[in-house]
Amino acid sequence: MTRIVFMGTPDFAVPPLKALAARPDFEICRVITQPDRPKGRGRKPSPPPVKTAALDLGLTVSQPEKLNTDAMVEELTALAPDYLVVAAYGQILSQRILDIPKKYPVNIHASLLPRYRGAAPIQAAIRNRDNKSGVTTMVMAKELDAGDILLFKETPIHPEDTARDLHDQLTKLGADLILDTIDQINAGRLTPTPQDAENATYAPMLKKEDGQIDWTQSHLDVVAHIHAMTPWPGAFTRLAGRRIKVFTAAPGQDEAPDRPGTVCAVDEQGIHVVAGTGVVIIRELMGKSGKRLSADAFLRGHSLAVSDRFE
Asked: Formyl transferase C-terminal domain: which residues (predicted)?
């Protein structure tokens, strides 16, 4: 029986947890996740998705405010795990924690390492208009996302994909990959490979203000930015001083007929907005009600004319 301590917090970590729990030859002896946090308008404490999934599976859950304490080291050591499996947990693990498993501390990372180490690899891949992404399993090291690579799987990125779309593809890949990784290690068929540090790139954590659309960029870059920021932190622009979220868009013509940010046409395709080069066609955006609307539905309830300008 392979003993596993699983550490994860958001939606991304749920399919890998469920995949591991479904294996009769694996025992998840503890799930570690972040504490419940205030959420929504009422700011009521809300459990992280991993906690909800773990309890549904009948697993034991711990939610330490701080992981790297003497008490947690003792508690995890007593569990005698073969592996720590970590997926978007949200705290940095000390070397004392990393040294606990008999075999490896394994991280599931949502990029093809060494590209996009850091907290926002999915958004970075969309924003940079990459044509593929993937998931990597690695042996965790003290330096962020710099550990030796175990396995990886690739998936294509399509031009219309948002960060949510890619997230959903990668979490499924991650579930398959962690099973394959542990099976190959247990069978003695897998040797960790050092990363090529010279080719490492970084995708730092995003802030809300990073979602602002810069209409002076090329139309292709603006569309990529909108899709990269959906659903979080959310791409936004301003119209007559009012902040408006934009969810999906498509590239239009290659020529820019007016100043960046200017509405140059409104038709069944959407709202055409001039960028630094070319035109962006807004397909979905947020209305006054806060609901996500098609461009057509937005125009039925909002005043918008050719020559109006987004800022």
From this structure: 206-302
User: pTM value?
Assistant: 0.95
Q: Binding residue per annotation — 206?
A: no
Q: Does residue 169 share a domain with residue 72?
A: yes
Range of the domain at 250: 208-309
Q: How many CB atoms lie within 10 A of CB 288?
A: 11
Q: Which DSSP state fits 237? A: E
- Tell me whether residue 48 is annotated as binding: no
Q: Is 233 helix (H, G, I), strand (E, B) or coil?
A: coil
Domain count, the chain: 2
CA distance 116 to 110: 9
Q: Is 112 annotated as a binding-site member?
A: yes
Residue 111, marked binder: yes
pLDDT digits (tens, 9 = 90+) for 269-294: 999 999 999 999 999 999 777 889 99
Shared domain for 187 and 274, answered yes or no, is no
Token digits for 169?
């593809």
